[in-house]
Amino acid sequence: MADIWTLVGGAGYTAAVFAFGRLSSSFDWSTLFGTGSKKAVPQKSTKDSRGAAAGLLSEIKQELDTHSASTRRLNEQLDSADHDLICDQAKATRTDNSEFQKFLDDRCSELERLLDSRGSVKKLLGNLAGHRKRANELDGVLEKFEDPAQIESAVSPLRECIRDLQDHNKRLQAELDQTRKAVAQQSQQLEQAQEEARVDALTGLPNRRAFDEKIEELHSLFGRGNSPYAVALLDIDHFKSFNDEHGHAVGDKVLGFVADVLRGTQRWTDHVARYGGEEFVVLLPRMTGHKAKFVIDRHREKIERAALTVDRQNLSVTVSAGVAEVLPGDTISKVLARADAALYAAKAAGRNQTCLEDDGTIVEVSQLRPMDAEVECPVA
Fold first, then answer.
1. Which of the four CATH numbers 1.10.4160.10, 3.40.50.1820, 3.30.70.270, 3.40.50.170 does domain 208-373 have?
2. Greatest Cα-to-Cα distance within the chain, rounded to the nearest angstrom
3. How far apart are CA 175 and CA 44, in angstroms?
4. Within a 13 Å sphere around the CA of 370, how many CA atoms are in the beta-carbon half?
């Protein structure tokens, strides 16, 4: 019951479009959302709302079982000759029944707020409302048991009311289980699609969206007084010439080649992503700019030394890199702009090198002091 519903967020990225295209071809969205078009997908979905809705549905299932057990106990007591015992049990059941009705009202209102109430969800809410109505009818019958003189005449209507509730509860549970199984499968596929929306389809690295989320996280920690972070931008040198001289297919291979080297070189604490075009970005948590410059220069050297052979031809691939450390008062845009300024300086200085923007000063890798390079570089 906990995963009966999932909502879909807009992707907006190539990998996400591909993933949702595959999903749409294998699943009829109109069945789930009650629309005439597979494109009519709810736009208000979030991971939090899905989790909250799943929790509410789990609560409802448990409460349905509890209410059913309460009415079953009362039904068993109706065969007793002890009218006082029957009245006491009826009173207890009426209290439980009143709380159950309020529970359904509250949870159904919350579900309507969280979920797009169309299609199967609208039907589910309608059936829950029908169950709530039956509980209200039970309340009217139980009221008669407060008068001992009406007990005999009220037993038969009460049995019928309880039987109707039990039967409806079974049908409702069966419907929920059927819906849960169908949507659980789609939920898994949608979670995968959301994950793919954060992956660059060409290189397999995290994409700009994933990078933005991670740097927001690191910047928030930095703002709360935690350790700093550094960011590096790496740009493939003369990338246009690969496309012009060898074709875009070779250009794609160059991008994949650089991505593979970066993936295999990165420290396990770092985060490498494709920033866009021929640019890559590396986030280095808990690291100063000078030490980050040394780490990134090792990345640059490994790319330079690695061999890329295309059609029996060895291609020379190098990158230029710019590094910046976040400073007090920096916005994310500002620290990225400083890394970009360092990258521009590396390009202007002849390419295939690493520069650091150090609070307004550009520092080339040749100026790296030995003490600056004393940093462990665990590889993932």
1. 3.30.70.270
2. 102
3. 25
4. 0
